[in-house]
């Protein structure tokens, strides 16, 4: 079973995020907003005492201990536990390797990580070669606490996204019409090239060759025109979506109480604006590129299989290898983005 992981929203949310991770591990789901309120998160983050009080309210038996690496490594602490790093950052230690050399961490800023002994000790131990550990043990009260949560949160988010792009459905229909037009014209090119060789050159029919070449020129002109139209529609749609997202964000932001701004860094708010740009790019650029690439691969695979069926097997293998490499690169890019996101928020 994979250990839970949760990425913190703001720079100072590592404390309540750790409580959310451990509570999810034990089978209880709490919203981050509720845990932030319990932990009394401020601009300086969460203190050990505030997090201890919050954990006790959730039904944990809490023990805050300053210990050495030897004590932690000798199975003297219940896992998972919360580790306080020297960078004023909380992480969840959920397992120690059999050889006692690897430590498995759920970091709210990055995700699931594996540290060796040296790296972990450099991040955790202070000048006295000791570090803080917050041990959490669920009590019977933990299982009896029932908190009303929004069970339809995901459905609400999907509904908000649908409502966001619904006013621009005509533009999206136009974009995909141009995409299918370009793909259809691309499909004709191999057949025209075959006709030039098999029928035009073999029969020495110059008029047929000229006619096919003119058809290819017309196809190129059609592709260029369709791409220009698609770019114009995409530009208008992306501009309108960006304005809609930013205005909705500012509308909600201005409705928040003063206490929100007292506990939130400016970098966190700026990052939300950047996230709006990323959302717009996904809908107007990334999504279209995924559709175009996937359909192109499917169409050319069919064409290739029609002429050389035995070549489809290595083509499929290369495609799977490419997709595996692509997903690995995307996961690494996402991991690096999460790190840079936290650093940019802290500025």
Automatic annotation (TrEMBL):
Principal place where this protein is found? membrane
Limits of the Peptidase C39 domain: 8-131
Q: Which domain of life is it from?
A: Bacteria
The record's subcellular locations are: Cell membrane
| Keyword terms of this UniProt record | Membrane, Transmembrane, Transmembrane helix
Does Chaperone show up as a keyword for this record? no
Domain (ABC transmembrane type-1) spans: 173-304
Does the UniProt entry include the keyword Transmembrane?
A: yes
Protein's organism: Odoribacter splanchnicus
Give the protein name, as stated in the record. Answer: Peptidase domain-containing ABC transporter
GO CC entries = plasma membrane
